[in-house]
Design goal:
Layout (H helix, E strand, L loop, with lengths): L1 H15 L8 H21 L6 H14 L2 H17 L6 H20 L10 E3 L6 E3 L8 H6 L5 H10 L2
Antiparallel strand pairs: 1-2
Length: about 160
């Protein structure tokens, strides 16, 4: 079953690399929902110990569903992963820290609140330029670095590079 989670993660990534993502978004969204259902079923039924990598895969999939519930679940998985990473700075530990920031920001955005870390971008109209969602000015760049997120100035530059 753990191999299935990895496969779902790879499918999630592949969906987002499509050159015409805007045009096929309804189909991608359906697949996101199905992947999230499968992750939830795995969580409910799996009795073994989960490592940081699997927590990251599952959280990433849930994060992409884009609902309050899935963002909360992704955040909880990321928090659990961060606890397992105490004192480590491996690639997956950096990824799980980013996932915590990203799922926190997505959850805040879905609640209509400013994001904390600056991980969420949007376009005001189809085909328009990307920009950062509203950001809480109290969050420092040091906090962003702690969660493997670009500092605010870099995040704004990234928005201009997103196609």
């Amino acid at each position: 079953m753990i191999n299935k989670i990895k496969k779902l993660f790879q499918e999630d990534i592949a969906d987002r690399k499509k050159p015409n993502l805007d045009d096929c978004w309804p189909e991608v969204s359906k697949r996101d929902k199905q992947r999230a259902r499968e992750v939830r079923a795995f969580i409910k039924n799996y009795k073994g110990k989960l490592d940081v990598q699997i927590l990251y895969y599952m959280g990433f999939i849930l994060h992409h569903q884009g609902t309050k519930l899935s963002s909360s679940q992704a955040r909880l998985l990321a928090k659990r992963g961060i606890e397992l990473c105490k004192g480590k700075n491996t690639k997956v530990c950096k990824q799980i820290r980013w996932l915590y920031a990203g799922s926190t920001d997505r959850l805040l955005r879905l609640k209509g609140e400013p994001q904390k870390y600056g991980t969420q971008y949007h376009r005001k109209k189809k085909g328009g330029k990307y920009e950062l969602y509203c950001i809480d000015p109290k969050t420092t760049d040091e906090e962003r670095k702690e969660f493997n997120v670009p500092i605010l100035a870099e995040a704004r530059k990234l928005a201009k590079k997103i196609i």
